[in-house]
């Protein structure tokens, strides 16, 4: 008879990577798993099982990954010894995810041992998401120990998002579903939460009385590269605004959560999304700018326009740029404009949030026109905080108008906190953090279905407006900051984009 001491408790994890030979797996997921392994944070006794349709042995899969690691940044490359230790965790299962019978092969592979946690990471074509969850359930692979990770995009509009979430919800409980928005894993976003909810300094200032406007910019200097075909069916609104930009907006505008539990945080983000000003025909026309890059240059070299990129259909009306203005209708933010803009082939690769404070109410110093305090939260390429103040740099005496007490001129200066310099550039990257959170079952940085649906609900009128042919994209030259209409939109409020200040 088996004694209680003989009973083997499930241990370790199995991470099944559907799309194990895809771009995301090579460029992000495998390097992130390796970094976690190197940092000693990946729980021991785990298996990472790549899944795709190619016929590969475990050894061939390991060799493929080793060859791909040669493209990774220098310090992140494994030594041969490190790789051979990491490779012991790697396995491969050949499967066609559209074939129900293939899920039995996966079930058999997983039955070889009982892992404490089974993570199903769906990093494959979005068209397969529903099939995958349904077939996992049909094969009995949706056990309480299983967590499912879904990559973006979850749908291409509100109805398709609801359909996918309904299908996932039939197979898995919400606590088992990890919807990735990798922006939430970025260290700068963690620091935004820390800044707001770990420090009391800014909270009294974080409101309509002191803040003039908030700008969220996610700018890329690259074009669509080899992903023209994929991008053309998506566009900037779906690719960046519905998910990443709105999650940043939530992080900046949400109320302090009652604690750090996942649902407390997600409840507050949901309230922000529900408070976004509803679109009207007037605001759709005046507060949204849609653009598409034309030929221009990048770093002094000529680059083609979007319509000349490989895979982009002739005459495509897909946007590569969006700028919009919205408001959050609650007591804290009423009347404060929030501007979001994102685009490809812009003047620089940078992502930041700029909180522009109101100017001093009664100036007694001379200062550059429009100068005021601002807080800049940099997300990329640097990760840090800048606090812009006005100071008397040179005690410069100016000719004061007769009868005036103004004798000093102030100049902008900034306090600059570079988190890479402060904490070292070997900090945990977004995918590394998110993968560890899935394995540990922490949902804080993942998007709940109601949040995601609310975000789609808010962008749906914009999509419909465009689908009705109401707003063909405006051309902008590659290497610029987008269509001039975006500057005109913000100028109507008496503000300007950060680089125009
Ligand atoms: P990808 O390069 O096209 O890779 C797709 C993967 O899925 C390949 O491993 C492919 O292998 C596998 N696959 C396709 N059909 C299959 C089937 N019927 N059965 C089994 N495996 C199948 O795509 P990706 O760029 O990695 O993107 C994957 C997902 O992540 C997508 O949802 C994408 O939107 C999302 N995402 C990607 C990025 C990125 O930077 N790449 C960023 C954010 C989100 P075989 O064809 O060999 O079977």
Automatic annotation (TrEMBL):
<feature type="binding site">
    <location>
        <position position="152"/>
    </location>
    <ligand>
        <name>NADP(+)</name>
    </ligand>
</feature>
<feature type="active site" description="Proton acceptor">
    <location>
        <position position="244"/>
    </location>
</feature>
<feature type="domain" description="Glucose-6-phosphate dehydrogenase NAD-binding">
    <location>
        <begin position="16"/>
        <end position="191"/>
    </location>
</feature>
<keyword id="KW-0560">Oxidoreductase</keyword>
<dbReference type="Pfam" id="PF02781">
    <property type="entry name" value="G6PD_C"/>
</dbReference>
<comment type="pathway">
    <text>Carbohydrate degradation; pentose phosphate pathway; D-ribulose 5-phosphate from D-glucose 6-phosphate (oxidative stage): step 1/3.</text>
</comment>
<feature type="binding site">
    <location>
        <begin position="96"/>
        <end position="97"/>
    </location>
    <ligand>
        <name>NADP(+)</name>
    </ligand>
</feature>
<feature type="domain" description="Glucose-6-phosphate dehydrogenase C-terminal">
    <location>
        <begin position="194"/>
        <end position="497"/>
    </location>
</feature>
<comment type="function">
    <text>Catalyzes the oxidation of glucose 6-phosphate to 6-phosphogluconolactone.</text>
</comment>
<protein>
    <recommendedName>
        <fullName>Glucose-6-phosphate 1-dehydrogenase</fullName>
        <ecNumber>1.1.1.49</ecNumber>
    </recommendedName>
</protein>
<feature type="binding site">
    <location>
        <position position="182"/>
    </location>
    <ligand>
        <name>substrate</name>
    </ligand>
</feature>
<feature type="binding site">
    <location>
        <position position="220"/>
    </location>
    <ligand>
        <name>substrate</name>
    </ligand>
</feature>
<feature type="binding site">
    <location>
        <position position="53"/>
    </location>
    <ligand>
        <name>NADP(+)</name>
    </ligand>
</feature>
<keyword id="KW-0119">Carbohydrate metabolism</keyword>
<feature type="binding site">
    <location>
        <position position="186"/>
    </location>
    <ligand>
        <name>substrate</name>
    </ligand>
</feature>
<feature type="binding site">
    <location>
        <position position="344"/>
    </location>
    <ligand>
        <name>substrate</name>
    </ligand>
</feature>
<dbReference type="InterPro" id="IPR036291">
    <property type="entry name" value="NAD(P)-bd_dom_sf"/>
</dbReference>
<keyword id="KW-0521">NADP</keyword>
<comment type="similarity">
    <text>Belongs to the glucose-6-phosphate dehydrogenase family.</text>
</comment>
<dbReference type="InterPro" id="IPR022674">
    <property type="entry name" value="G6P_DH_NAD-bd"/>
</dbReference>
<feature type="binding site">
    <location>
        <position position="239"/>
    </location>
    <ligand>
        <name>substrate</name>
    </ligand>
</feature>
<dbReference type="InterPro" id="IPR001282">
    <property type="entry name" value="G6P_DH"/>
</dbReference>
<dbReference type="Pfam" id="PF00479">
    <property type="entry name" value="G6PD_N"/>
</dbReference>
<keyword id="KW-0313">Glucose metabolism</keyword>
<dbReference type="InterPro" id="IPR022675">
    <property type="entry name" value="G6P_DH_C"/>
</dbReference>
């Amino acid at each position: 008879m088996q004694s209680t001491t003989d009973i083997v408790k499930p241990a370790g994890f199995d991470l099944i990577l559907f799309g194990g030979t895809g771009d995301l797996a090579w460029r992000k997921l495998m390097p992130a798993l390796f970094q976690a392994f190197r940092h000693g944070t990946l729980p021991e006794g785990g298996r990472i099982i790549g899944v795709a349709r190619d016929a590969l042995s475990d050894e061939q899969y390991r060799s493929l990954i080793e060859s791909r690691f040669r493209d990774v940044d220098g310090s992140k490359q494994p030594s041969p010894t490190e790789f051979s230790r990491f490779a012991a965790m790697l396995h491969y299962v050949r499967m066609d995810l559209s074939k129900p019978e293939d899920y039995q092969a996966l079930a058999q592979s997983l039955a070889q041992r009982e892992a404490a946690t089974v993570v199903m990471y769906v990093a494959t074509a979005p068209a397969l998401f529903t099939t995958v969850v349904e077939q996992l359930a049909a094969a009995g692979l949706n056990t309480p120990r299983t967590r499912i990770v879904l990559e973006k995009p979850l749908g291409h509009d509100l109805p398709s998002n609801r359909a996918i979430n309904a299908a996932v919800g039939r197979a898995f409980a919400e606590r088992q579903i990890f919807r990735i928005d990798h922006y939430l894993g970025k260290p700068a976003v963690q620091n935004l939460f820390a800044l707001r909810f770990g420090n009391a300094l800014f909270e009294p200032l974080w409101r309509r009385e002191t803040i003039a406007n908030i700008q969220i910019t996610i700018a890329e200097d690259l074009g669509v590269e080899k992903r023209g075909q994929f991008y053309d069916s998506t566009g900037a609104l779906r690719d960046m605004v519905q998910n990443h930009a709105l999650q940043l907006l939530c992080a900046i505008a949400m109320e302090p959560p009652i604690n750090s539990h996942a649902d407390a945080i997600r409840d507050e983000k949901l309230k922000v999304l529900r408070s976004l000003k509803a679109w009207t025909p007037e605001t759709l026309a005046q507060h949204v700018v849609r653009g598409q890059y034309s030929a221009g240059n990048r770093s002094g070299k000529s680059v083609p326009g979007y319509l000349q990129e490989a895979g982009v259909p002739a005459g495509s009306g897909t946007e590569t740029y969006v700028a919009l203005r919205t408001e959050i209708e609650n007591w804290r933010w009423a009347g404060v404009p929030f501007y979001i803009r994102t685009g490809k082939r812009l003047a620089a690769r940078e992502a930041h949030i700029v909180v522009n404070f109101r100017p001093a109410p009664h100036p007694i110093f001379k200062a550059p026109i429009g100068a005021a305090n601002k807080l800049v939260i940099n997300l990329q390429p640097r990760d840090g905080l800048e606090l812009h103040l006005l100071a008397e740099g040179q005690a410069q005496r100016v000719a004061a108008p007769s009868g005036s007490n103004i004798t000093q001129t102030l100049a902008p200066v900034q306090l600059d906190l570079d988190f890479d310099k402060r904490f070292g550039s070997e900090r945990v990257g977004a995918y590394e953090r998110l993968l560890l959170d899935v394995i540990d079952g922490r949902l804080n940085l993942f998007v709940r279905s109601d949040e995601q649906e609310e975000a789609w609900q808010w962008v749906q009128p914009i999509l419909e407006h465009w689908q009705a042919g109401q707003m063909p994209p405006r051309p902008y030259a590659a290497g610029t900051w987008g269509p001039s209409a975006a500057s005109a939109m913000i100028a109507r409020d008496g503000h300007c984009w950060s680089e125009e200040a």
